[in-house]
Amino acid sequence: MKIKPLLAILLSTTALASGDLITGLTVESATTGLNPEMGPEKAINGFGLDGDVPSLTSSHREQFSSNWWSGWSGDVTEWQITIDLGANYDLTETHIWNYRENCCAGRGLSSVEIYVSPDENEDNLVKLITDGTGEHDNDDGGFSFPQAPTGGDYLGFDLDVSSVTNAALLDNVRLFRIDGGSSLHGGGQVHGGLAEIQFDGVPASVGPEDLAFEIIPLGDTLTFSWAGKDGRLYDLVSSTNLSTPPGEWSIYEGNSNIVGSILTEVPFDGNTRFFALIEKNAQ
Ligand SMILES: [Ca+2]
Question: Looking at domain 31-203, does it have CATH number 2.60.120.260?
Answer without folding.
Answer: yes
